[in-house]
Amino acid sequence: MSSVRLQLEARLDLRAAEPLAQVLVEHRGNDLILDAREVTQIGALAVQVIRSAAKSWAEDNVKLSMENASTDLSDQLYLLGFKPETITQWEAA
């Protein structure tokens, strides 16, 4: 099965969180690559949406990953306790 590639919006702020969640739900059950090359801003709610997707993808035993993270995105994720490589990985408690 080939992966679907989703180009993320440049601003993943409060207004972008709900549309992002809807798009992710549409792709649930499929391997998905989040292409983050254009992302310059991410808010905590968008991080929560991506983390929720990480849990769902893990439960469905399909792959979710983030690629091409911009420097701005990487820096902001670091401040929130994540890395582009780990935000989409779910570890069961």
Count of distinct strands: 5
The residue fraction in helices comes out at 40-55%
Oligomer: single chain
Low-confidence stretches: none
What does this structure look like?
The protein is α/β, with parallel strands linked by helices and 93 residues long. Helix content is 42%, strand content 17%. It is built from three helices and five strands, in the order ββαββαβα. The protein has helices at residues 14-26, 44-60, 71-79; strands at 4-7, 11-12, 32-35, 41-42, 64-67. The strands form two sheets. The chain has a three-stranded parallel sheet. The protein is globular. The mean pLDDT is 95.
Gist of the model:
The chain has 93 residues and is an alpha/beta fold. It has helices spanning 14-26, 44-60, 71-79, and strands at residues 4-7, 11-12, 32-35, 41-42, 64-67. It is built from three helices and five strands; from the N terminus they run ββαββαβα.
Summarize the topology.
Elements (H helix, E strand, L loop, with lengths): L3 E4 L3 E2 L1 H13 L5 E4 L5 E2 L1 H17 L3 E4 L3 H9 L14
Parallel strand pairs: 1-3, 2-4, 3-5
